[in-house]
Amino acid sequence: MVSSTGTFVSCKDYDDDIDNLQEQINKLATKEDMTSQIATLQAALTTAAKDASDALAKATAAETAAKAADYAYTKKELTTDITKATQYDCGSTLPTIFGGFGTSVAAYGFDLSAQFSYQLGGKIYDGQYQALMHNGTSQGSAMHKDLLNAWSETNKNSDIPRLSQAAADDPGIGSQTTQDRFLTSSNYLCLNNLTLGYTFPKALIRPLELTNLRIDVHNDTQLFYYLLST
User: Fold this and answer.
1) How does pLDDT run across 106-153, given as a tens digit for each residue?
2) Of 5, 37, 117, 177, which is most buried by a Cβ count within 10 Å?
3) Under the phi-then-psi rule, with left for phi > 0, alpha for psi from -120 to 50, and beta for the rest, what region is 77?
4) Burial (0-12, 13-18, 19+ Cβ within 10 Å), 175
5) In DSSP terms, which residues pair with 185 in a beta bridge?
């Protein structure tokens, strides 16, 4: 007895497979498309790199200009002519903080109270110090002891001008013009009031038909203590 088996595949099945394969191939990018996309990406990267380079160059230029401006502002040029001296911002006259406080203590009938005010920050112009720092042309006027430290051939590191009455050395008495060397710190602590009192025991004043007896001394004179600035 002879038998045989076989599988029959229709042409339509092959056609469907071919169509699906062709559809997948069509979805794949062609070589030309890939080349075009790569070229576009390279162009975008090149543009981004150029923009980044330009931004860095501008930032570097701005930093250089800022440093140059800061150097030009802070650089102290030396000159022998005070009228050509560079002007600088020397700070503010306004204090950073100010206020007042007080305290009182009592023991064994005695009491002590004090009232203070204070200020921290800011600068003031010391006109009295300026008047005392003259070059000797104001005959009969007091001179400040700091003038003993004036510039000389043996004291060249002094910030006090050389004492000279010659017009060529000090034209227009320029050594006494408004300068930052006469600025001083306005920090201070002030004792506004100080009171010391004593209250007598009632047993002592009862025979005098008094209900209370207290004596005190007080001082309202303002005593200033200028705090050194750092």
Assistant:
1) 999 999 999 999 999 999 998 888 888 887 777 788 888 998 998 888
2) 117
3) beta
4) buried
5) 123
Instruction: Give the other-Cβ count within 10 Å of 213's Cβ.
Output: 13
As a whole number of angstroms, the distance between CA 90 and CA 71 comes to 17
Single-letter code of the amino acid located at 158: S
What would the two tokens of residue 81 be?
Answer: 């002519």
DSSP of 106-134: EETTEEEEEEEEEEES-EEE-HHHHHHS-
Cα–Cα distance, 211 to 192 (Å, whole number): 31
- The DSSP code for 137 is -
Give the residue from 222, 214, 221, 223 showing the smallest Cα distance to 196.
214
- Would you say residue 2 has pLDDT above 50? no
Q: What are the backbone angles phi and psi of residue 222, rounded to the nearest 5°?
A: -80, 120
Q: What is the greatest pairwise CA distance in the chain?
A: 159
What are 91's two structure tokens?
Answer: 């700070």
CA atoms within 13 A on the CB side of 72: 6
